[in-house]
Amino acid sequence: MGEEGFVADEKLRRVSRREVKRYIANVHQHVYVADHEERHRRRAVEPRREPARALIAASMPEVLVETAAAMAADRAMPVEVVVEKAAASQPVADDEFNFFS
Question: Where exactly are the structural domains of the chain?
Answer without folding.
Answer: 1-41
